[in-house]
Amino acid sequence: MERITEMPRMQKDENGKMMLYVDGAPYIALSGELHNSSSSSLAYMDQKIWPALRPLHMNTVILSVAWETIQPEEDRFDFTLVDGLIASAKREGMRLILLWFGLWKNGISTYVPAWVKKASSGLNARFFRVRDGFGKPLDCISPFCEEAVQADAAAFSQLMQHLAQADPEHVVIAVQVENEMGVLGADRDFSPAAEQAFHSPVPELVAQQYGQGSWEEVFGRDGGEMMMAWQYASAVEKIAACGKAVYPLPMYVNAWLEQHPDRAGCYPCGGPIAKVMQIWRLAAPTIDCYAPDIYLNNFRGVCDEYAVSGNPLFIPEVRATKDSASFLMYAVGKHRALCFAPFGIEDLFGNRSDSIDDSLLATLNISNDAFNPTGAGERLAAAYDLIGNMLPIIDKAHREGKIHAFLEYHDSGISLSLARYDVQISYSGASESFFSRSSNNKDRAVAGGFLIELSENEFILCGSGYSVKFLPKPGEKAVVGVLNKEEGYYRAGEWVPGRTLNGDEGYFIGLSDFPQALHISLFCYE
Q1: Helix (H) or strand (E) holding 393
Q2: Which of 79, 385, 394, 428 can bridge 465 by disulfide, Cβ–Cβ 3.0-4.6 Å?
Q3: Whose CA is closest to 60, among 98, 19, 6?
Q4: What percent of the chain is helix, strand and coil (3-state, nearest 5)?
Q5: Residue partners of 70: CB distance under 8 A and separation at least 6
């Protein structure tokens, strides 16, 4: 008999920080997102995907469910694939986060059913398309098309209603609504409906926050993007609200980030990038959080930008490289990220399952090193194993303000002020340029990690590629000594000691290029 577990939810803790709860306990999705088509075949999942994921110590898999797979005909739904994915995840001891590929995926509408595509041609089409400034139709159904939004909402509601009945153990813990939506190839929608909206007064909720007038009068040159943000968010609200009404799982939306050349339409115009997040919040209150897909070099900056104003950091896509483990350490240590998920997770041990050529990456405006899993698998597996077994310690440290995270990015290190000591963190490649590592260290991963204060004289160091120097407070006449330096790891929240390091191996406090943990005890003498 299947057991009925507690409903997953997002809720603020006693410090006002938004948390994800699964089975009533705080949860961090140590995850990975599959390639877009991997989950379309149960046989492929069993033969290729699940074996590739088993060594990674993950607890969650992010995979797609496309509208076309569950509603192949307008009057017929088929959830065979969904049921199979839930069953196989349960067998593997994994939780699932579903990506709803409905009307929009990466700024286009390729995952809609065939019957929707056939009814999307022409200005007066049932499911009319976005138009560019020359009137050319784009491969994107317009968010101004109310009938299309209602059809998507009806299908999404059917999916959520099925999950409510078919998944009593809550294998599925959250749902992403659409994927990297927005207009690509134009700076806004120029369809007749969009033109009318652009020259009309902004909605009352927007006027209350920003002032009266048309979109252009209120927002100037950003008026088109703000209008598209409102329209996509309004459409998503209708879709998500229909789903939550029947089964209130946590729901989020993800963003293809603003990047060079920083022009709307070069990235999806209207998606939930940071500068339009407030518009999204006004239009889509059902959405629990806004999530960045991070392929830019400044991982640290993007995390800090999205972990603001009550928005929890949730990373459903990040580049899969040898740096991923350090990115994880920073996201969890600095912001207690609810999810961390390299994209193409099935490739991390070098078994490429999906080819991405340079021309596509150029179109997507993504650096060609963003999908380089060489060295990533072993490092991420070690980091997931370490983090997954110390979640209670991390939670406690965050509640008490005793965790300090850092990540290398064009800098040499960081200084910390702790209760008893000052600390200097230095990165192993501090003398090197971030993008031109020396020939001896060209395979070195970006340094990163976190420090937890267990007490004023006792610390846990996690991560890789950095050294630590503990100093007395300024003006204090004392010398800091190492009482004990111990390798080890956590298992089910308990420290398991390894070697005790002393002599030549005990003097220097540093972590190697491979993710690890050290337990340090200090004392002072005069």
Answers
A1: helix 391-400
A2: 428
A3: 98
A4: 35, 30, 40
A5: 77, 78, 79, 81, 82, 155, 158, 159
In the chain, what are the domains?
Answer: 9-388 (3.20.20.80), 401-525 (2.60.220.20)
- Using a 10 angstrom Cβ sphere, with 0-12 exposed, 13-18 middle and 19 or more buried, the burial of residue 164 is middle
Q: Whose CA is closest to 289, among 246, 335, 327?
A: 335
User: b or e along 124-152 (b: 16 or more beta carbons within 10 Å of the residue's beta carbon)?
Assistant: ebebbbbbbeeeebbebbbbbbeebbebb
DSSP-based three-state secondary structure for 423:
strand
Instruction: Tell me which DSSP letter residue 456 carries.
Output: T
In this prediction, residue 431 has a pLDDT band, given cuts at 50, 70 and 90, of very low
Name the E strands within 27-74.
Answer: 29-30, 60-66
The answer to whether 429 and 422 are in contact (CB under 8 A) is: no
Rounded to whole angstroms, the Cα distance separating 228 from 183 reads 8
d(CA 45, CA 88): 9
pLDDT in tens, 114-152: 999 999 999 999 999 999 999 999 999 999 999 999 999
Taking the C-alpha atoms of residue 105 and residue 103, their distance in angstroms, rounded to an integer, is 7
Kindly write down the DSSP assignment for every residue of 113-154, as one continuous string: -HHHHTT--STT-TTPEEE-TTSPEEEEE-TT-HHHHHHHHH
